[in-house]
Each structure stands twice: as structure tokens, then as C-alpha cells.
Amino acid sequence: MAQRMVNRSVIVTGAASGIGKAIAEGLALEGASVCIADLNLEAAQLVASGIVSSGGKAIALQVDVTERASVVSAIATTVQVFGKLDCYFNNAGFNQPMKFLEITEQNFDQIMRVNALGVLIGIQEAAKQYIRQGTTGKVVNTASIAGRTGFPSFAPYSASKASVISLTQAGARALAQHGVTVNAFSPGVVATPLWVKLDKDLEDIGEGDSGFASMSGDILLGRPAEPSDIVPTALFLASADSDYVTGQTMAIDGGMILV
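-> C-alpha cells emitted (259 positions)
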């Protein structure tokens, strides 16, 4: 079977670990040239080195998705190295649980800045690059089941991921005239380093019974996801297979949230 991402250049933010790492590695196996974009440059370089040693094409860049100049620079470097940009994954994000009545302005602002503003900047700057190139292009955003239903200990995170869904729809409408598609996927409970930290954070605020194990119990398919479970949908959204799909958020949650 032919590789679906040959001659396609992709940026994946937050790609040094977890879902982003799995996506980057999966796309590279399908022939993509991948930029591993992450705040943690050392970890990003390890991922890129692993891809290259396996015969793939990858570079690593330190990127702060909340700073437009950082995103612009990453896109310019990727285009310089790989010749163009075909797909941009807005995957970087974080969570810091707090009890609902104790959520602070700082907590809300930090989460919204990374998870929502970062996605807006990524959509805008990727689209500007596609327009400069005179090509079509794709943007893929990482939403969450938390964007479909609010969790009391994750309220700012839920709000930020609801914003991702709205930005996906707005971007799709705004950019269709340029041949740019904007879609998202919505993971549920995924076994990543993020959840290890979340479980500890939830215990620290006295909400340990609402963590990974508890939430996994609501999954119809009976198990939490592995990062590899996300890759096929990410590949579909990054490849020509999804050329007639835009403005959609695809759930990959094992049947945890039914809407």
C-alpha cells in the first residue's frame, strides 16, 4: 500500500511526548517530513532523531505556541528545510486542575492562552503560509471530550477545548475560500505522561477519585486509549483522504461521550 504522506510537510506542536509524539512518528512512517515543535527542545530533538534513524525526515524546533513570532519562525524554518507546508497540527496544550470554587484568574488565563489562543495563532499562521504558497492546506486541532462536557476540576481546560471546537468551525468557514480545511479530533482518556501528572494534581487537591482510573470506567470499549489509537484518525485528517471534510471534530474516546 502506498504511503499517504509522501511529499507532504507537517508541523506538529507539542510533539515531544504523548499524543503529539505518536502523531509525528505515525506521519513520518507514512512518508511525511515532520517538524517536531515543542517548548522542550531537548525532548523534541530525541523524537526527531528517532524518526531520522528509522529512515524518516524530521527536524526539531523550540516553539512557544502562545507567541506569534515563535510560530511564524517555526513555519518559516520548516518551509526553508522541507520546501513547503501542507499540514499544521495544533496539538500543544496543558491542564492544571483546581476545584471549581478555587479557580483563579491566573489558572484560567494560562490554560486559555495555550489551549485556545495558541490554536487561533496556529490556524492563522498556517493558513497565511498556504495562501503565500498558492496551495491548499490542512489544519488539525486537538480538542477533547472535555470540550463537549464540563468537568468540575477541569473547568478552564473544558472551556479551552470547547474553544478549540468553535475555532475549528470558524476557521473552516473563514478559510474554505482558500482551499484550507480545518478539522479537529477529540480524545478521551489517553495513557500519556499528561495523565500521570493530572492524577497527582487531582490527589493534591483532594479529587483523587476523579482521575484516570475513574474516568476510564466510563469507556464503552472497556479501556483507555493509547497514543497509537489516535494516529489513524490524525493520518486521515492530514492526508488527501479527508479533502472533502472540514469543520468537523471527530471523537476518539472509545464511546465515552455520546453526542
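Residues 69 and 96 are 26 Å apart (CA to CA).
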